[in-house]
Design a protein that fits this description.
mainly alpha
Length: 64
């Protein structure tokens, strides 16, 4: 992903159903800081967080 938070070059899987989640207020503030300072959407920020956690825990997209 580039600095502007544009796509990663993956094709879209098409429309998804909405996902609702409650997160702690401090995490919500961090997500909004990323959105504002990096120009990322909240979805992009959450995707990057999940990717980083998966990498840290030794998971890959192709493992189950």
């Amino acid at each position: 992903m580039d600095e502007q938070g544009k796509g990663r070059g993956r094709p879209s899987d098409g429309p998804k159903q909405p996902v609702y989640a409650r997160i702690a207020s401090d995490k919500h503030e961090l997500l909004h800081r990323l959105k504002d300072e990096k120009g990322w959407s909240l979805v992009t920020a959450m995707e990057r967080a999940v990717d980083a956690l998966a990498k840290q825990e030794g998971f890959s997209e192709h493992s189950s």
